[in-house]
Every structure is written in structure tokens, then in C-alpha cells.
Known about the structure:
Elements: E1 17-20, E2 34-37, E3 53-59, H1 63-75, E4 84-90, E5 112-118, E6 129-132, H2 147-151, E7 161-165, H3 171-182, E8 187-191, H4 200-212, E9 215-218, H5 227-234, E10 238-242, H6 261-265, E11 271-273, H7 276-289, H8 292-332
Parallel strand pairs: 3-4, 4-5, 5-6, 7-8, 9-10, 10-11
Antiparallel strand pairs: 1-2, 1-3
Amino acid sequence: xxxxxxxxxxxxxxxxxxxxxxxxxxxxxxxxxxxxxxxxxxxxxxxxxxxxxxxxxxxxxxxxxxxxxxxxxxxxxxxxxxxxxxxxxxxxxxxxxxxxxxxxxxxxxxxxxxxxxxxxxxxxxxxxxxxxxxxxxxxxxxxxxxxxxxxxxxxxxxxxxxxxxxxxxxxxxxxxxxxxxxxxxxxxxxxxxxxxxxxxxxxxxxxxxxxxxxxxxxxxxxxxxxxxxxxxxxxxxxxxxxxxxxxxxxxxxxxxxxxxxxxxxxxxxxxxxxxxxxxxxxxxxxxxxxxxxxxxxxxxxxxxxxxxxxxxxxxxxxxxxxxxxxxxxxxxx
Length: 333
């Protein structure tokens, strides 16, 4: 297995096997120790047989990946000393294809005490199944923004940017049509086929787009949540996101438990749109009228919010694991 989740390293140390050491003080999360294990040589038979607590980061995005994930989950009963297991799952973008995980949950007789699912899912109950943010595409080499860029008061020359794959019949075609009809001088770099990995030149082009514009447009692809949202926040570029339902398996956009539930709950400084034709140009006109200092202040506020959000997700992750893995030990003390 290879690392395929685009999770920011600051969200928490996540890996295919996270073994918690025996010297754990559950009442004091900073003393929760883990071992990072990842790479193609990490398979169920190479995991230490005396492991007591494990977090598996698995890919459930498509049937072939699900089959591999199930091999890991089916192996859990073989670890005789295992006391606790949790999963971080790259889920189905259509939101409805994660039910295969249910038999592995503790409430259904399985070994998994908690599951964190990337992408919206009707299974999320915040008791046993939690939503997890997509984060930035670290697997494609996305870097941290340099501090010099974020502290700079220089003006960015483009009012907005969009770099991405344009799917036939998608709102991304609508977005490009609006920008073309209005002659908006935005930074655009599109392609017709999605590629899982970036080339050096394509990554540099994308980073340049984020550095040179204060607004990043996020028309929905297969799911409204995309790496670009978090990558824009990392670089202090305001994300404009498409807040509408694309698949019947996903919650309605206006539902409190919809796609952007985590971002809305934590009051993310985003702009939400439902119709690019009607709403895009007023957003860009407002952007052009903004004073330079306002843009600089907003940049810093975006980065500050994103930093606090990552910490909140980290703390929630550790809190859930502490409760699920060690609550019995806490009650006995």
C-alpha cells in the first residue's frame, strides 16, 4: 500500500499503522505516543504481532481499493493483544459507497472503535463515525506556504485563479464561460483529464496561481470538497466554493450535516455560491474594490484560521482515540 490520502501532516500523525506505545497516560494527550509505519512493505503480516492499539489509514474510494482495505480489517482478529482499532478512510466521493465498513465497527460486532471518513457520508454520527477534512494533497508534493509570502504586503496581480480539470457538463465549464464572457483577468490553467500526480512544471504553475491571486475559485468536480480549498487557505487565498449537492447519496447542501459540515461548524472564512453565472461577477467586483490593506489583513486571517482549524481537528482526533481506546483504563484509576 502507498500513501494516497491528501491529509496535511499538521492534522495529526496518520499512517497505515499507528501503534500506540504501552507507556500511555490517557488523561494527558501530549503523552500519547505513536509509531509511524508506512510503505509498500507494510502489510498485515509485517505489523508487530504484539500491537495493542492501531489506527489504519485506508483507501475506500473505489472497489479495488476497498478490497485491499478489507484485507487489513479482516486481519485485525489475528492480533491477539489488540485492545483498540480505529480507521481513517478516504471515502466514496458519491457519499453512499461506504457501507462496506459497517460490519467492522464495534457496534456491529467488529473491532473498529472509531472511523474518520473523508468526504460527506450519511453514516457520520459523531459517536462512532466522524467526518475528516480532505486537507492538502501532500501525496502530490504540495508544500507549506513560505512565511515570507504570508507576511508580505505586496499586492497579488490577479483577482482570482482556477487551476484544475474541466469535466464535460460540469459547473467548471459554466465558470470558464462566465469568466470568458466577462473578460475577467483571472489566472487560468485547465486540462481535460485528471492526473493523480503533478509534474514539476504543473505543480509550479499551480503554486504560482495561489501566490499571485487573492481568490481561489473552487467549482465542484466529482465532489464539492477538494484539495484546492485547503491549499488556498494554506496560501492565504480566499476559497470560493460551490455549495450544492452533486450526488443523491450526499446530504442536501443546506443540511447542517452536509458536505461542508466541518468547515461551517468551525466558521471557515469561505465564500459559498450555488450559481456561478449569477454570483461570480459580484464577488470579483467586490474584490477589485477592496483596499490593499484589507486584502493583506484577510490573507493573514485566512492562514490563522486554517492553523487553528488543523489544531482543532488534531485535538478532536486525539480526544476520540483517548476515549475509545483508554476510557476503561481512566475509569479504573
